[in-house]
Amino acid sequence: MHVSTKRLASSRFAFPGASDKEIRILKRNALIDRAFERSTQAFALAVLLLLGAILVSLCVSSWDTLSAHAVDFLTGDRWAANMEMFGALPAIYGTLVTSLIAVAIAVPVSFGIAIFLTEKCPEILRRPLGITVELLAGIPSIIYGMWGVEMLAPFLNHIFPDLFPAGSGLATAGLVLAIMIIPFITAISRDVMLTVPPITRESAYGLGCTTWEVVRGVIFPTVRHGMMGGVVLGLGRALGETMAVTFVIGNNLFFHPTITGQGTSIAALIANQFPEADGAQRSALLALGLVLFLITFAVLATARYMLNRIERRAA
Amino acid sequence: MLKTSCSALLAGVLALHGIQASAQETMTGAGATFPYPVYSQWADDYQDAKGIGLNYQAIGSGGGIKQITAKTVTFGASDAPLKKDELDEHGLMQWPMIMGGVVPVLNLPGTEKNSLKLDGETLADIYAGKITHWDDAAIADLNPDVDLPDTAITPVYRAEGSGTNFLFTHYLSQVNDEFADTIGEGKSVAWPAGVGAKANAGVAKQVAETEGAIGYVEFAYAKQNDLDHIRLRNHDGEYVEPSSDSFKAAAANADWSNAPGFYLVLTDQVGADSWPITGASFILMHKQVEDPAAAKRVLEFFDWAYANGGDAANELDYVPMPENVADQVRDSWGDIEGPQGESIWP
């Protein structure tokens, strides 16, 4: 009783001229406010905690492999589980090559679609085309995989029998990935291009700029940041894509410095071997998962760094 | 209100109890996926005949070994047999239950169906990426009367870990020392050349679509889809067709009595009619069981399957174990003991 009067008195100091009832309401509101703030903070921290926990558990469970032969693991040219030779090079190479092929194809196409949709598209077509692109983004990856193995691989084999003797390979996987990430990059690029104020755009047209000049000189510099974000998101998806890639990559576990030949990617290798793996093989596959984690992290960090440098140079 | 909820709870508990009581009349097992169709067919027939059901989880050979070691199931099943010391380590015993074979298939337009002949040595060189074209001298020597095209060879293999991989690589390692040293046997191996496809269906599809491809699938799969297969030269130098008879010949000619713990992979067996890539799928049980009644139920089921399961197996294109092998297995069951050391069989 004594304490509460004292607290009430000090509150009265904080809210001069307020009645006891008002003070109580104000205090309750302040409490709710603080609780809300704390809980949002907790959610945000939980993400960090989760990320750390995943990283730590991957490190712990792959420790056997990493501590025993970390160098062989990164440079070994084959993944032969039966001989306990776990070389991640073929999988790392395959992951990077397929993702780079995918981005190299997807970026120009996506930007092209986005520019057409925002600058040139007749009003009637704009909505249906936009919705189609968004629908493409919603197709499950297994369907792209089936399409790749049923249609694309035989087609490539038919057109270029010397380059694609079996249809499948790193380039085939890269093509499937490109089609998978085009809708992502397109949707984000279109959305950020639409944020360019019409007045800026129309001023440029009014000065006699061509569409290309408007896009290059006005739109790109304004929304560079957002478009880069779309590309990074697409790249992230390409690096980790599993099902579709497993179908068409050829699953060869030897390192071959090839673009069109068969290979494997980290995600495909894990998907193929994890269910039946135990002991050293399981530990090595978990180490492979850690490598994928780090590659994705490095790609995101590099993209952000490059972006910051461009921004600084522009400023 | 309280009364009704109490009685509902009681009814629920009683119902659960009923389920547990009937669960005692089922057998539990887990493991290999390859024999799953025939085991479940046997289980259906056995349920009709004796009223005892089987709960078999086809989780893969590795999972089956884990489950039986942890004693969560009465029996485990594995496509690859365990070695004697591995069995002893966990107090397990094993026996062969059903057989199948692996058949190399190909897609080579211009040659007559099922006419191409190969030996193990050449097959291993093809899969090691050393023979790259169909008109290679090594293949031409084996097929003097076939006009071979100069098509490039695309070896197709199983991408995921599988018992089929184990049998195939075990055979190639037996007949080609270099293959054994560089690639070796195992459930998942690294192939230097060619394309990895998923499951039998994936391999068959890739072979069908790729001119010049060679692959390997389980016999049941090759037969049901009428694929163009290779005639292999066996240990006795004869070229044999893959068939139930040639698999049975391999099993019958095998020396089971000198194989401790029935550790025998039936590849490259002697006998003029033996198909060289034959393998059995194995059952694993503890030598000292905690629940003798459950163990006896399982043994009775397998006894019944040896005696009556042949037709069902043949219909599904599996190969039942020959009678003499089944008898040796039944004899070995005498080693299974209950908690007090009492014999369970017969």
Automatic annotation (TrEMBL), chain A:
Residues 92-303 form the ABC transmembrane type-1 domain. The chain crosses the membrane at residues 42-63, 91-117, 129-147, 167-188, 284-307. It is a multi-pass membrane protein. It holds the Pfam family BPD_transp_1. InterPro entries: MetI-like, MetI-like_sf, Phosphate_PstC, Phosphate_Transport_Permease. Gene3D superfamilies: MetI-like. It is found in: Cell inner membrane; Cell membrane. Keywords: Cell inner membrane, Cell membrane, Membrane, Phosphate transport, Transmembrane, Transmembrane helix, Transport. Part of the binding-protein-dependent transport system for phosphate; probably responsible for the translocation of the substrate across the membrane. Belongs to the binding-protein-dependent transport system permease family. CysTW subfamily. This is Phosphate transport system permease protein. It comes from Chromohalobacter beijerinckii. The gene is pstC.
From TrEMBL, chain B:
Residues 1-23 form the signal peptide. The keyword Lipid biosynthesis does not apply. This is Phosphate-binding protein PstS. The complex is composed of two ATP-binding proteins (PstB), two transmembrane proteins (PstC and PstA) and a solute-binding protein (PstS). Residues 21-304 form the PBP domain. The keyword Signal applies. Belongs to the PstS family. Keywords: Phosphate transport, Signal, Transport. Part of the ABC transporter complex PstSACB involved in phosphate import. NCBIfam families: 3a0107s03 (TIGR00975), PRK10918.1 (NF008171). Pfam families: PBP_like_2.
